[in-house]
Amino acid sequence: MTGETERATSTTSTMERPPTDLIDRVVERLHGVLRPDQILTGKTDRYNRARVPAPFPVHRWRERVPDLAVLPESTEEVAAVVRIANELKCPVVPRDGGTGLTDGAVPLRGGIVVDVKRMNRVHELDLENRTVTVGTGINMLKLNEVLGRHGLIYPDDPASYPCSLVGGRIGTSGWSLIGARYGHTRDLVLSFDFVLPTGEILHVGDGIGRKISKSSSGYQLKHLFMGHQGTLGIATKATLKLYPKPEAELSPFWAFDDYDAAYRFTGALARAGVATFAGAVLFDEWKVAYLRRDDEAYIPQPADVRALTCAVLYGWEDEVRVGGKRLFRIAKEHGARYLGDEISEGDWAARHDRYATPLHGRTKSGQVVPMSWHCEDAAVNYTDVPAVTKAWHEIVADLRRKTDVFDDWGMFAYTSADTGVDYLTEIDVGIWEQRLDDAAWAMWVQAKRDIAAAALAHGGSISACHGSCREGEVDLVPRELGRGFDVMLGVKRMLDPNNIMNPGKYLLDFAYQGDVSAQLDELRGIR
User: Fold this and answer.
1) Residue 382 carries which DSSP code?
2) b/e for 244-262, b at 16 or more Cβ within 10 A?
3) In whole angstroms, what is the distance from residue 435 CA to residue 450 CA?
4) Quick one: DSSP state of residue 133?
């Protein structure tokens, strides 16, 4: 990216924080619609709502601290807060579980963080239609504890499953680890109530019904209000699709001497047409090496193992048994070595355990240091996964040659659907956050641009899961979307005339800057 483009982009991501007198007026007005215990202005409360798992220079955390936080308990209270913010032109940032990796819940310009965690009720459980209506502050773990008593499950299963909330999943249009069997967030959420930046309340779904999964009446607005990282409003109550709780699970792991064999095998599993197939995951050589050295790894492997493939099936016992036989037959045809029941069952059961925790990084000399985990993801067609894998490792290797701040923790490729047409391709990077100074941060931001560019060069999307509104990859969103990005700007300007809703994200500040066609053409790569 040229220096001119970088300067053009940076001007859209900075704006002064609200002045103190404005915040005082906001707090005064909020006391008219919320109880005192719902309005948080203390330093601890504000700092606790400024952090997300994605690493950021420690010395700059204070730049992302909100001026206050609120804890609404209903759609009407959210609407009242947003109306006040819109009238006084104060930034608003929705925060659900705060587990996102692209800064959707990070307040770049202060203002109000709307924390939805108190909106966590189960409003209705419809056992006949197999739907549940919930406040968006509930997380999947607690929800499924309730549903399990009725033999049902809400199968939205991110890596952050125990702590991510339904509202955050809507805001990111999240990706599920078992999506090849049940679909992803966009497929599982039937409808939701949504507070617009003006404080108006909108219900979106297929048609007007809360429990309809397919309508041909007008534009399909549900997907417009998913995945916007809080820039168009706040989801407050959602109706979700339910499935029978699986009677049986099979999660075999297989080892390979080389990556290419594991890659071909993973594709064969995805194309096998097994009805209970919930997903397959390809671990490359760097990932195997990382798991081998990590003290908490569940997959200790001898040195001759260069790649791993994991598959998982869910369903009734007789279905899973038959499907499993087919997968093991395919494994035999591809020379796969089964790792045994203990490792297979143990690692899949622990798939959520190591999310966003400090892990064991290594300097170039081999010294063990505490590093934070981060990942960059893309949606990549099966045929392009090897090329993207190679390109991404080269980018991180270049970082590592320059500084010990970064460590390559390997790559995953997850099936996105039961056809195996595309994969969530993810590179995991250890970042020594305490050493992440401004110079290293600039290197990381450029590496993120390069990672996104490699995905686009191979016909992929910048992100399959986490979103792409963080500094670095966000610069390439206009290039990926083309004129569709102009539509995004138009929608943002129409729905949020005062730019109060999560300002500074997705380059949407361009919507308020007059004629920016030349800058956008430069971002698109049009000269």
Assistant:
1) G
2) eebebbbbbbbbbeebebb
3) 22
4) E
- As a whole number of angstroms, the distance between CA 166 and CA 226 comes to 12
DSSP 458: T
What percent of the chain lies above the pLDDT cut of 90? 77
Beta-strand relationship, 248-250 and 243-244: unpaired
Tell me the per-residue pLDDT of 199-216, one tens digit each, with 9 for 90 and over: 999 999 988 889 999 999
Q: Any idea how long the chain is?
A: 527
Output the pLDDT for position 355: 61
Containing 70, the helix (H) or strand (E) segment is strand 68-70
The encoded tokens of residue 20 equal 């103190």
**Coil/strand/helix, residue 501:** strand
Residues 371, 351: Cα–Cα separation, whole Å: 19
User: Where residue 298 falls among pLDDT bands split at 50, 70, 90?
Assistant: low
Report CA-CA distances (Å) from 95 to 68, 164, 483.
Answer: 12, 11, 30
Per-residue pLDDT, 418? 86
Tokens of 193: 């109530």
From first CA to last CA, the distance across the chain in angstroms is: 13
Task: For residues 116 and 136, give the distance between their C-alpha atoms in angstroms, rounded to a whole number.
Answer: 7
Reported confidence tier of residue 5, pLDDT bands at 50, 70, 90: very low
Residues 6+ apart with CB under 8 A from 315: 181, 246, 247, 248, 275, 276, 323
Beta pairing, strands 189-195 & 248-250: unpaired
Tokens of 147: 């549903």
For the chain, the maximum distance between any two Cα atoms, rounded to a whole number of angstroms, is 71
What is the pLDDT, as a whole number, of residue 525?
A: 83
Q: What is the 8-class DSSP label of residue 44?
A: H
Tell me if residue 26 falls in helix, strand or coil.
helix
Q: How far apart are CA 421 and CA 94, in angstroms?
A: 33
Residue-wise over 115-151: b if at least 16 C-beta within 10 A, else e?
Answer: bbbebbeeeebeeeebbbbbbbbbbbeebbeebeeee
